[in-house]
Design brief:
This protein is α+β, with helices and mostly antiparallel strands. The chain contains 14 helices and 10 strands. It has 4 domains: 163 residues, no CATH class; 83 residues, no CATH class; 68 residues, SH3 type barrels (Roll); 84 residues, Alpha-Beta Plaits (2-Layer Sandwich), CATH 3.30.70.100.
């Protein structure tokens, strides 16, 4: 009951102070003159903004086809045009403030008006300018309440109360203000870290002269550095000593080291893969365990393979180091395939290699280096003479590429044009009369 009475008494004291302040403003000529100045500043800001806004919008709006740095900067500035009205009102009020203070030696109403204009600017920023969902949420529940308290002059009081309210947990004590500051600063820092990481990753991916593995390693290094700096800054803002964290981190590290050996092994294996570049994003690989596919992503723990039938396989990075890996597309190396076929025994087989090799060489993807198409005699089958043509291509014979199928079509057409038939099995059936006749 005593606590409730104290709260009621304090609230009544603030109400009395507010009423006394309002009476002073309503009955004071200096206050009325300051009110008039605020109204004039706002009206003048409306007129100036109405004149300048279309001109400034036309000046800052680039052509749709322009995508350079200057055009992007103009588009970025264009979104802040709605702030013109409250900022002009604040500027005009500030210019008249010195005159009022020199005449009446008072500027409380002017100061209140300036804070209100800043509150309006913050409200417009959150409602009309911010597009990122996280920043919009942060502005709605943090920036606007803080600016409202600042406008009515209670921000310092609330800040003092939060600072003086201390919470103790054993030997550790901290104020509510440090928690609020940490939450706000942490949210902003890690949003900036995420944004910076996205920008740096996009910039690194554009550097086509770098190997894919080098680009991935650079992106991961930038990510670790950005979030590491964000964490250190957050600890400094919250007033937490890094020395005390070192002892705690050492104890946690020993405990987790045994349980997270596989994760650490995969992380180190991933770094080795990125440094050596033996398998990187875009390569088609096949592991001893039977996993095969194109590497579409490499994370700190595993590589993600995409098969030609659309399935994703998550392979730990350690498997690339400890097992045999066949890389079919490292550095764009060519691959050799062969297409088997047969011809009839009635064919002059000495003519077949030249005909088939010439036909296969017409394929746009078949290479002449390191070797041109080579047709070889493989054996004499039950129904015909067996041949196979070997050819080299850049890429894999699957997915979007159907090299063997295309080559077989070329062989069929070439043999048909030269009157050479492809045999099919023949069976001779003999019938015997059981009577011996």
């Amino acid at each position: 009951m005593d606590g409730q009475a104290q709260i009621i008494t304090t609230a009544l004291g603030y109400l009395n102070q507010g009423w006394a302040l309002a009476q002073g403003w309503l009955l004071s000529p200096a206050a009325w003159s300051q009110f008039a100045l605020l109204v004039m500043a706002y009206v003048l800001a409306v007129l100036v903004a109405r004149i300048l806004r279309p001109k400034l919008a036309a000046l800052l709006t680039p052509e749709a086809a322009q995508q350079n740095m200057l055009a992007n900067a103009r588009r970025w500035l264009l979104v802040f045009i709605p702030l013109m009205l409250p900022l002009f009102a604040y500027a005009f009020t500030a210019m008249g403030e010195s005159v009022v203070r020199s005449l009446f030696d008072s500027g409380a109403v002017i100061a209140f008006g300036k804070r209100v204009f800043l509150f309006l600017a913050a409200r417009i920023l959150v409602q009309e300018i911010l597009r990122d969902p996280f920043l919009k949420l942060l502005g709605r529940y943090v920036l606007i309440p803080v600016m409202a308290l600042y406008a009515v002059g209670l921000l310092e009081l609330v800040s003092t109360q939060l600072t003086e309210t201390v919470i103790s947990l054993g030997n550790i004590s901290f104020s509510l203000m440090s928690i609020v500051r940490g939450l706000i600063a942490g949210s902003i820092l890690f949003w900036l870290g995420r944004w910076s990481n996205d920008q740096s990753s996009a910039f690194i991916e554009k550097q086509q002269e770098m190997r894919p593995a080098t680009r991935t390693l650079a992106a991961k290094t930038a990510e670790l550095m950005i979030f590491g700096v964000a964490f250190l800054l957050l600890m400094n803002i919250m007033g937490i000593s890094l020395t005390s964290l070192a002892v705690l981190g050492g104890a946690i590290g020993v405990g987790l080291g045994f349980g997270l050996q596989k994760i650490a092994s995969n992380f180190i294996s991933g770094v080795i893969l990125l440094v050596e570049g033996q398998a990187t994003v875009g390569d088609y690989v096949e592991l001893d365990g039977g996993e095969a596919g194109k590497i579409v992503r490499m994370t700190a723990r595993a590589a993600i393979l995409e098969t030609f039938d659309g399935r994703w396989i998550v392979v730990p990075n350690e498997d690339f180091i400890t097992t045999r890996v066949v890389n079919y597309s490292d550095s764009g190396s060519a691959n050799r395939y062969e297409a088997p076929f047969s011809v009839s025994y009635d064919t002059d087989i000495n003519l077949v290699p030249a005909i088939v090799e010439a036909a296969v060489a017409t394929h746009a993807k078949v290479l002449s280096e390191p070797f041109p198409p080579d047709c070889e005699l493989r054996g004499f089958g039950d129904s015909g003479v067996d041949f196979a043509v070997e050819f080299w291509v850049n890429g894999l014979d699957d997915g979007e590429n159907k090299f063997t199928s295309d080559v077989l079509f070329l062989i069929w057409n070439a043999l048909k044009d030269n009157g050479i038939t492809i045999p099919y099995p023949h069976r001779v059936v003999e019938l015997h009369d059981k009577r011996g006749t």
